[in-house]
Every structure is written in C-alpha cells, then in structure tokens.
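hey team, just a heads up i'm posting the complex here instead of the shared drive bc the drive is being weird again. everything in one block, sequence lines first with there labels, then the predicted structure for the whole assembly after. its two chains so it's a bit long, scroll down
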Amino acid sequence: MKKQNVRTLSLILCMFSYLLVGAAVFDALESETESARRRILELKRTEMKKKYRFSEDDYREIERVVLQADPHRAGRQWKFAGSFYFAITVITTIGYGHAAPGTDSGKVFCMFYAVLGIPLTLVMFQSLGERMNTFVCYLLRRVKQCLGLRRTEVSMENMVLVGFLSCIGTLCVGAAAFSHYEAWTFFHAYYYCFITLTTIGFGDFVALQKKEDLQEKTPYVAFSFMYILVGLTVIGAFLNLVVLRFLTMNTEDERRDAQERASIKRKRGLRSHINLSLRRPESPLGSLCSCMCYRLEVCESPLPSHREHSGCNINSVYCNSISYRIQSWSPRDNTGLSSPGSTLSLGHNFREYPCCRRKSV
Amino acid sequence: MKRQNVRTLSLIICTFTYLLVGAAVFDALESKKEKTQKKKVYDRKQELMNTYNLSQFNFDELERVVLQLKPHKAGVQWKFAGSFYFAITVITTIGYGHAAPSTDGGKVFCMLYALLGIPLTLVMFQSLGERINTLVRYLLHRLKKCLGMRRTEVSMVNMVAIGFISCMSTLCIGALSFSFFEGWSFFHAYYYCFITLTTIGFGDYVALQKDHALQTNPKYVAFCFIYILTGLTVIGAFLNLVVLRFMTMNSEDEKRDAEQRALLSRNGQAGGHNQMRCTPDLPSSSSAASGCGGGSGNSGVGGAGRGLRNVYAEVLHFQSMCSCLWYKSREKLQYSIPMIIPRDLSTSDTYMEQGEAFSSDPLHPLHSNGCICSMHHPHSAISSVSTGLHSLTPYRLRHSKRRSSI
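-- predicted structure starts here --
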C-alpha cells in the first residue's frame, strides 16, 4: 500500500486508541469525585428548598435567574475591552465561552469574523514563529561562536530544546502573573495558561473576570492580551519547528511519487526518443515528448491506483522547464533563450491538452 | 527588507487591525443587549428576593449551589461516554468547558494528554485531509473524462469550490440533525456546528447535554462523535488545500534564499570549494532533521576544480538558468507587494499551475515546480538530453542540498 495511505490509516488508528485510553483514564480520575460532589450538592439543594419552602417551580425559577445572571457577575463583557478579549478568543480559537454573542446578529458576525480571522491568525503565528526560530538559530550560532565552541552549527536538537524551554518558561511566567492577579493557586494558574495557550479554552478558569477588571485595570488587561498573543506565538514557533513538517508529509510524498514515475518513464521513453529531442519540433508540443511521456504515464497509468491525478496540476511547470531546456539545447532552436515568454506559452499550450492525450512523436 | 520580514510584519499589523475592528463591531452589536439583559435579570433577582424574603447572604448561598450544580444538570459527565466526549474536546482543542476536570489529578492528566494528543490530532487531520483531497481530485478527473470534457485537469479553483461546498454541506447536515435532536432552531444549530468545527467551542451550545443523552441514547452519542470528527476532517481537508501552503511560506523563502546564496557563492568562486554555511532554514517541511550540519557534506561534490569541463558546464548552466531567472523575476514582481494571498488563487487556470511553482522554491524540485535548471544540471548539449534528464533522478532521493556534479 502506498506510504501515504499507511501513514494516514495508522494515524487514524492511533487517534482512536488515544481517545479510548483518554476516556478511560478521565473516567477513572473524575467519575467518583463527580458523583460524590453531585450527591452533596443535591443534598444541599433539598435542604435549601426545605429551608426556604420553595416549590419545584419556585426553585426552577430561581435557578433560571441565577444562571442568567451568572455571565453578568464578571462585569460588562461587551464594552470595547471585553469585545477585544472576545475577538481574541474567536480568532485564536481559544473560545472560553465566558462571553458568547447573545444577539443573532452577533452570532452571524461572529461566524464571518471567524471564517476570515482564523486562517489569518494561523498564518500569522506560523510566519512570526518561523521568524523567531530563524532569529533564535542565528543567536544560538553567535553564542556558540562566542563561546569558542568547535562546532558552531545549530542542530535540530538545540532548537527543539530551546523551543521547549521557551514554552515552559512562558507558561511559568503566566502562571506566576495570573496566580498573583487572579488569586489562583500557582497550579491552577499554570493549568489556565496551558489550556489557553493550547487554544483548548475550557472557560473554567478565565482571566479578567474579577469584578470590573476589564474596565478598570487597564495595564492588567493589556498584559493579559499581550500574554495570550505572545504565548501563542511561542507555542506557534515550537509547532512550526516540530510539527509543521509532518503536516505536509503526505503532500510531499505525493509529489515525490509523481516525480519518480516521471523519471522512470523518461528513462524508458528517452532511449527511443533521444533523436527527436534534437530535431526542431513542428509544434511547441513536439518537443515535449519526454514531458508528454511522463505526463501520459502519470495520467494513464496501468496501475489501478489513483496516482494519475497527482500529476495533473502539480507538475505541469516541471514539464515546461524540461521541455524548455530541451529546446534550448537543440542546436537549431534558439528561441528558448531569447523568449522566456515561450515558456509561459508552452505551459499554456500544454495545459490546453488534456492530461491523457496521446501525442505521437 | 527581506521578503519574509515584510510578510510577517504585514501579517501582524493585519491581525491587530482585524482584532480592533472585530472588537468595535462586537461592542456595537452586543453591548446594548447586555445592558438591558443585565438590568432585567437584576430586577428579577430583586423581585425573587422580596417574594421569598431572602437576604443577600441567603441568595448568594443559593446562587453558589445552583452554579455548582450547573454541570451536573446535564447529566453524568465523566462516565465513559462523557469522558470520551471530553477527550475529544481536549485533543481537537474545541474545549467546550461543559465539563472540566475538577480534581487536580484530572487537570494534570488533561495537560499531559493534550500535550501529546493535540499534535497527533493535527497531523492526523491534515494527513486524512490530504488523502481526501487526492481522492476528490481523482474522482473529479474521472468525472471530467466521463463527461467527455476537453480539459480534464483538475484546477485549484475546482478543488476550492468543492472543498467549500463540502464544508457548507457538512455544516448544514449538522445543523439539521442537531436542531432536531437538541430542539434548537436551525440557525442556533448551525452556529453550534460552526463554532464546534472551527474548534472555537464556546460552550454556550453543547450537544448531548439534554435528557441524559450521554447515558441513555448511545446512537445519538455515536452520531455526535462521528459528526465532530468527520466535520473536522472536512474542514481540515479544506485548510490543507488552501491555508497550509501559506504556513510554510517563510520556511520556503528561507530555504530559497539559502540556496541562492549558495549558488551565488559557488558561481563566484569558479570551481572553488563551496562551503555550505549554516543557514537557519531548519523548519523546512522536507528537510532531514539534521538541519544546518548536514549540508556541509556536499561541499566537496560541488565545485571541485574540473577545468574546462566545469567552465562549459557553467556556461550551459547559466543558459538554462535563464528560464529560472525569468521565473524568479516574475516571482519578484509578484512579491513586490507583500501579499498574503498568492497569485496561485487567481482566476487563470494556467497561472494556477505555474503560480504553484512560483510560490515555492524554483530551485528545489521537491517542492514541485519546474525550475529544475538549478545547479544540478550543468552538462554538454548532446549528452545533456540524456544526462540532464537522468540527473533529475538523484535529487528525488535526497534532500535538496545535494549538489551533483556532471
């Protein structure tokens, strides 16, 4: 089976097993506490109902009012500062839910806002993360030079180590700050920073929810926003370093497969077509013999696999440059060098022909 | 300024502007309602307190109990089904928060679980998304052939259109199902699906929270899980198609810069040794893990003085470089304005194919574009046809930094 398919299937299996294992462990860790706590709370509720002589309906009404009042307990959520906080949670996909649009138009705008904002943010963080990695690599090399080390190249292990330390450092700085400002324990603040910077964002702990913090404590508000964005950049840089290559693995493999097929075909086709490549072609496409061979092979592969499509829109320019170079080496054809535009037109003509058209040579 | 820096700065500015604009609009849309609702709820609260003769202290106590009971209202959250649901929300980073670990042990495990699970899930969705895109491309190609169309290549526009339509249908199917099962309006169910599948996951709407569905309705539970995972795959496939290339842009540019520098320095020293500097191009998608250190091994191969043959090679190399340079000059034109959206999403199909080439490293064939007339192929005219094309094969096996001699 193709490597990409094996990889994808293994990943799916891995993920399902991971979910099953996680579910089992969470069940074991939390179930007991949950049922115990629930029992206690229900007892308390019955007690209170008796104490205040609530009927079922009364209680339900009070419950409803309390639940409705809950988001307002944390102060105004939709003034500019609060909205900015909300906008951050949307485009970074953290999504605490401490504030969620109540109006329908707010929901609609939220969806459109996310559609454009999330890719923008993803690309921005990766872009900035790559810049940071480059800079760190440069700094590290200079440090190694200064320290007079013999080998001043920066290896992947160095970079991963520095990246990992930065992530831990960022989490600890945040934990220290939030535990101070929000009066959480260090552990809870660390947990909050972790859940935020991985963009999970449960919402069980949310910063800036103490009464009127959003409106009054402007430096702290600014710090929180900066922390979230900078922290996400650091995590993004680490992901860019470690994970991004895996995200493109299948695509790279497809490309490599296509090129392999191309070169194999070319080798075969070349022996019979080697003379033709030096003859001036009747049409621009005549010189594309090797390209066509490759292209034809890609498209009409006798193999029942679905490989052919991969050549369809990936390697036409590949073909172009091969053909172009063939033309330029042919002694009677000098057009290639002087008119780079022909490459483009070659490509254009080439594109007009269906992938699987058999061109006689 | 370097292109990558310009790009990064523009993206930062864009994002900040986007946040400011969003904040202003949300403020305008929601502030008023919040104010009126707050007042209403507060008034109602006062009413209740008067009716039942409750002091503030009593009410606070009540409030505490009610709020603490809130997660339990929706049923048992941590039995296996609920835990599985929770595990999904963790590793996909949706994170509703309808259930969150209350024990410290649970919190610790949650963090470790996420640490490994999130990259695994990211890679899995992109992998599966790429497979789906490949399959769709194949199917579309066959369909075009069957319909007897003249041009059976599948263009980027086709793929994007299909991807977009799949996303919309996934959202609509989910909206229909959840509006039926959860008793939400279609719009609210759509909003729920959207917020879930973009992994934002506010938690204002959460499925499987009514009538103890987690314990009593296993079919619906299974449907929800499958819907979330499949929906994320569809979105992931679309992202793989459209967004992933932008995430690797800076790395590609760095690599290209490094190779350019190498090429220039190699051509500058006619036949001299080409020392591969440590170029900070580590985060490249196709490089081996050895990073900078690995490149130096090739230096001996590249420019060892070979006299006339080398000069001839250089001449031909520069001849064939013309197309490359032309490609690059076109690229420079395209990049003169730092763009976030590259031209390969433009309307022209032809451009699309070549745009893909432009957007990645023209000197690096593994990034699928045709400018292979790089330092790999200096050779004589006659034998060049065979050797030139043959020499294409070596680098497919190796990382691009290999410099093969004639």
